[in-house]
């Protein structure tokens, strides 16, 4: 099955080296690629010229390859954004993006200089082909690809590291609204100084580097909404200045990744987590915001000066189970089986390294480590099994929560950038229910600590002591309120009470049975009454609501995350007790209407919000 590159394995691994044959003659400067705009040079003290190659394919010559919706839109958004930085931009869209044209563009880019910088952005289809000996090879799919002959007509996705090394520009950044797979880099972000300055930037740009930022991890599906991919929308917003966290007018690739990752992960409800890494070199790609005052920076002295280029160390973290890793109060990323986490540019000193297993049954891990300059410190994480529940006491709230997406924030009267935790359900007679917390509340603070996501709440509750009194700041009915709650102790039958809802089973052999199906094409779903058989089949608490029996691919409901087997309990905060309620509440919906839907998925409840008729 042909996969949308934006929704599968990432592709950059690619533009195979058939595209470039560099030689000594390539070191001589020749005119840039044809059809490029004649913009003035960016005037950067760190780079020569700035170039971007943007490739987007919505339509394919082979009718067996499905069309996409927003790949070209995303390329246009990136073009506008990069031209504001003074980049000379080459775009290849739809019929222009043939295999020969892409190869020709990369051959032309091989004539750039070794002081230049280059951004490569790709949005389109990708495909994996099983090779005769059982392994898989990935391909980028150009406009003129033949679906039955991808090996001969598409671009291999395995040589990006060598491609980056062979192109002359000293700094290259591959950006893909696609998900990561099959190319050899370890996802990590450098630890940068709080105050960087021009000396730091000059040092970072003296060394070559090839970096990659993709829209998600292996197998994840990239999300599209409101005319753009979610990844590209946050990416462009970051480049317009939001990612400049220290306000100095320069955005490093590291800062850009630090901005994009949490916002995309949050808006996609954890279904899409961008990956950032370095394929080659030790430098750092920079974007200087338009209007930043240019600083005349002298070249680095010939003799190394510690004051200009601090000596640093690195950490290589390995773990036999999946863990979240932090250094002090800064989250570094994830490590696990086959996934090593490497952290570069760590200043010498003593740090606290901590790890928490992503599953249950392990105690938190913590260790003091001493970092020395010019050395990579290998740190194995060895988790110990958690003690029996009776041997320690852990706080309990008794609430089901989920991330607060921009759509949900807007639907409940907050701004799209608001942070918090959405309450989907409460356990009867649990501390949350006794305090007055109820489904549809948005938890903003727990005991004075801001809640950015479910993991913040889980951690805060678990570290609280039973019988401890805590204040909850919530959002309800368009205003903030404060609730007092007394933390309880985890009951023996509750494995993980304060959690995110699980995904619905995806591989059921049959849809839930029932009668009198109602189809809502505007929403992209079909629903049936909840029968006693469905109650038993789905292990429901009651027969209230309607069960989703079909979700159309690419529909508003599908893009919002509604799945077959979900039970609809509310539409726009009005209860759905029967099929009659559902028909009444949805019969007049039209394109542009916003819906907020409460679902039951297995034993858990969760909200989704979306705009009808828009992707």
SS content category: alpha+beta
Supply the number of structural domains: 4
Largest sheet: 7 strands, antiparallel
| Coarse morphology | globular
Beta strand count: 36
Task: Jot down its keywords.
single chain; alpha+beta; Rossmann fold; Pdz3 Domain; 4 domains; 13 helices; 36 strands; 31% strand; disordered N terminus
Can you characterise this structure?
- The chain has 615 residues and is of the alpha+beta class.
- The chain has four domains: 3-18 and 47-288, 3-Layer(aba) Sandwich (Rossmann fold); 313-380, Immunoglobulins (Immunoglobulin-like, Sandwich); 392-489, Pdz3 Domain, CATH 2.30.42; 518-611, Roll (Pdz3 Domain), CATH 2.30.42.10.
- It is built from 13 helices and 36 strands.
- The strands form nine sheets. Strands 30, 31, 32, 33, 34, 35 and 36 form a seven-stranded antiparallel β-sheet that branches. Strands 3-2-4-8-9-13 form a six-stranded mixed β-sheet, with helices on both faces. Strands 23, 24, 25, 26, 27 and 28 form a six-stranded antiparallel β-sheet that branches.
- Helix 6 (230-242) packs across helix 7.
- The longest helix is centred in the middle third of the chain and has 15 residues, at 253-267.
- The protein is globular and about 70 Å long.
Summarize the structure.
This protein is α+β, with helices and mostly antiparallel strands and 615 residues long. The chain is globular.
Topology, element by element:
Layout: E1 3-4, E2 50-56, H1 71-84, E3 88-93, H2 99-109, E4 117-123, E5 125-130, E6 136-140, H3 150-153, E7 155-156, H4 160-166, E8 171-179, H5 197-206, E9 209-216, E10 224-225, E11 228-229, H6 230-242, E12 250-252, H7 253-267, E13 275-281, E14 286-288, E15 313-318, E16 323-327, E17 330-335, E18 341-346, E19 349-357, E20 365-371, E21 376-380, E22 395-396, E23 399-403, H8 406-411, E24 421-426, H9 431-435, E25 442-446, E26 449-450, H10 454-463, E27 469-476, E28 479-486, E29 488-489, E30 518-520, E31 525-529, H11 532-538, E32 546-551, H12 556-560, E33 567-571, E34 574-575, H13 579-586, E35 594-601, E36 604-611
Parallel strand pairs: 2-3, 2-4, 4-8, 8-9, 15-21
Antiparallel strand pairs: 1-5, 5-6, 6-7, 9-13, 10-11, 12-14, 15-18, 16-17, 16-19, 19-20, 22-29, 23-24, 24-25, 25-26, 25-27, 27-28, 30-31, 31-32, 32-33, 33-34, 33-35, 35-36
Helix pairs in contact: 1-6, 6-7
């Amino acid at each position: 099955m042909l996969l949308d590159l934006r929704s599968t394995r990432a592709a950059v691994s690619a533009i195979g080296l058939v595209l470039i044959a560099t030689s000594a003659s390539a070191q001589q400067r020749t005119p840039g690629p044809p059809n490029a705009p004649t913009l003035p040079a960016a005037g950067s003290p760190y780079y020569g010229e700035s170039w971007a190659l943007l490739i987007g394919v919505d339509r394919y010559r082979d009718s067996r390859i499905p069309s996409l919706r927003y790949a070209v839109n995303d390329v246009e958004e990136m073009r506008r954004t990069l031209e504001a930085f003074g980049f000379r931009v080459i775009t290849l869209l739809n019929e222009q993006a043939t295999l020969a044209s892409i190869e020709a563009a990369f051959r032309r880019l091989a004539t750039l200089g070794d002081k230049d910088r280059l951004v490569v952005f790709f949005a389109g289809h990708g495909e994996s082909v099983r090779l005769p000996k059982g392994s898989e090879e990935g391909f980028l799919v150009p406009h003129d690809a033949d679906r039955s002959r991808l090996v001969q007509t598409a671009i291999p996705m395995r040589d990006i590291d060598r491609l980056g090394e062979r192109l002359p520009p000293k700094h290259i950044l591959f950006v893909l609204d696609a998900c990561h797979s099959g190319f050899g880099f370890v996802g990590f972000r450098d630890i940068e100084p709080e105050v960087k300055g021009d000396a730091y930037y000059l040092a970072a740009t003296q060394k070559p580097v090839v970096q990659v930022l993709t829209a998600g991890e292996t197998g994840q599906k990239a999300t599209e909404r409101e005319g753009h991919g979610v990844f590209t929308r946050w990416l462009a917003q970051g480049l317009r200045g939001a990612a400049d966290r220290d306000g100095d007018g320069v955005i490093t690739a590291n800062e850009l990744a630090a901005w994009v990752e949490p916002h995309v992960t949050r808006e996609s409800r954890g279904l899409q987590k961008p990956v950032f890494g370095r394929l080659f070199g030790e430098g750092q790609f920079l974007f200087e915001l338009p209007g930043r005052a240019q600083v005349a920076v002298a070249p680095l002295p010939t003799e190394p000066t510690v004051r200009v280029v601090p000596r640093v160390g690195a950490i290589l973290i390995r773990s036999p189970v999946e863990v979240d890793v932090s250094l002090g109060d800064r989250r570094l990323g994830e490590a696990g089986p086959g996934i090593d986490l490497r952290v570069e540019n760590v200043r010498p000193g003593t740090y606290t390294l901590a790890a928490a297993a992503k599953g249950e049954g392990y105690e938190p891990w913590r260790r003091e480590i001493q970092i020395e300059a010019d050395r990579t410190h290998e740190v194995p994480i060895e988790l110990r099994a958690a003690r029996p529940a009776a041997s320690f006491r852990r706080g309990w709230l008794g609430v089901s929560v989920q991330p607060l997406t921009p759509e949900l924030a807007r639907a409940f009267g907050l701004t799209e950038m608001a942070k918090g935790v959405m309450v989907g359900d409460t356990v009867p007679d649990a501390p949350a229910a006794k305090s007055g917390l109820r489904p549809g509340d948005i938890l903003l603070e727990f005991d004075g600590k801001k809640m950015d996501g479910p993991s913040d709440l889980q951690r805060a509750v678990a570290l609280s002591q039973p019988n401890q009194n805590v204040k909850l700041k919530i959002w309800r009915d368009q205003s903030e309120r404060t609730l007092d709650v007394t933390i309880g102790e985890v009951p023996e039958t509750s494995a993980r009470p304060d959690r995110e809802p699980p995904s619905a089973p995806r591989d059921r052999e049959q849809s839930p049975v029932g009668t009198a199906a109602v189809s809502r094409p505007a929403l992209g779903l079909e629903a049936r009454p909840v029968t006693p058989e469905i109650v038993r089949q789905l292990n429901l608490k009651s027969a209230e609501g309607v069960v989703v029996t079909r979700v159309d691919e690419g529909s508003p409901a599908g893009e919002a995350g509604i799945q077959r087997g979900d039970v609809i309990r509310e539409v726009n905060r009005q209860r759905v007790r029967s099929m009659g309620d559902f028909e009444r509440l949805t019969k007049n919906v039209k394109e542009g209407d916003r819906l907020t839907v409460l679902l039951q998925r297995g034993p858990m409840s969760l909200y989704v919000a979306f705009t009808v008729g828009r992707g």
